[in-house]
Specification:
The structure is a homodimer of 225-residue chains. By secondary structure, chain A is mainly alpha-helical. Chain A has 2 domains: 143 residues, Ribonuclease III domain (Ribonuclease iii, N-terminal Endonuclease Domain, Chain A, Orthogonal Bundle); 71 residues, 2-Layer Sandwich (Double Stranded RNA Binding Domain). In chain A, strands 1-2-3 form a 3-stranded antiparallel beta sheet. In chain A, strand 2 and strand 3 form a beta hairpin. In chain A, helix 2 packs across helix 7 and helix 3 packs parallel to helix 7. In chain A, 36% of the residues are buried. The interface between A and B is medium-sized, with 26 and 26 residues.
Amino acid sequence: MSRLERLSADLGCRFGDISLLEAALTHRSAGGNNNERLEFLGDAVVNLVIAEELFRRRPELPEGDLSRLRASLVRGSTLAEMAADLDLGSCLRLGPGERKSGGFRRGSILADALEAVFGAIYLDGGFAAAAAAIRKLYSARLSDLPPVDELKDPKTRLQEYLQARGRPVPNYGVADVAGEDHRQRFTVECRLPDDGRCFSGEGGSRREAEQAAARACLEGLHADA
Amino acid sequence: MSRLERLSADLGCRFGDISLLEAALTHRSAGGNNNERLEFLGDAVVNLVIAEELFRRRPELPEGDLSRLRASLVRGSTLAEMAADLDLGSCLRLGPGERKSGGFRRGSILADALEAVFGAIYLDGGFAAAAAAIRKLYSARLSDLPPVDELKDPKTRLQEYLQARGRPVPNYGVADVAGEDHRQRFTVECRLPDDGRCFSGEGGSRREAEQAAARACLEGLHADA
């Protein structure tokens, strides 16, 4: 059994046009018909299939929670793990430079190739074939979804924590900006208006620093409790 | 013919379960079974259908250009225009507050409802039914796609303009940050290293100010030419 036959079997599908699968496994460094356009298509396929699965499996969740759950399932690191489980790296076609530098193990290359494979299945067998392959690959992750609260960013978690206790929302303020243009470091303070305490966080943007400050504040509040 | 029957006819589809279409047209202000979850699903449906159309119609375009074209076709303002053409506003169910303030004409409400309608068609008739309705609605826009260059942001256009002429890339630097925390105004300068000229731009974030400076620079270069 060739590598591509084994991969097709693991995906539960049988390609009519195997050149689509070959293109999906061809990184741009290898030149020729590479997988970037198929990745564009496959990204949209997996987004819809996972959206529908979550929509049906979690009828109680509002749109924001469905979005967060989907983001955790289709992000690069999750796709890269699944690609590694499929041993996709051994099927990749890379240029000589990428091959020498271990590109077949790089997460982003694996994740992009898996999305391209989804695009190839879609073109070859249609939506139902692609949906079946994606559901098969995701079946364990879909049966064991993470708690929605864990997916929220710290600012959202902090706001919900305070609101649930009837406390006012925090104030965020930039306390310091240091460093040169392209490597600025922001320091933000998160102040709880009802007890006056203040927690600070740092980051490469104001948004990042605010999230870090909110995380510090949550940790402070949990330490109290 | 009722409003919903006319809408179904305009979409080229016949609902088995009309309550799905009713839910898609129910804004959260009306309470009950609203359209937010259907919008989440429909957004993914239209993204895939338009991705495939562009993939097939424009085989010469790289992934980045396909993404930009799709973004222009599925953004809120485009969806709101299509919703207005369908007279979706007259079918919406809004709460009393939104009704009084003219919510049935608000672009974001119309755009969200149209996405929810796509989600409803998908649940009712499957992917093929939804794809057919979306292709019908988009047929004029798909036959008359905008030039890809017009969709690029100013920084990208400037970089490509300079590279095509063998000139070095510009340098961007923050010249000034003014105003309070939540209403900061950034001033960025874009400098052309080979002729020393400098163009400035302002915005509410560094990114915005850089784009404004790049736009000013492009205008300066075009004025020369």
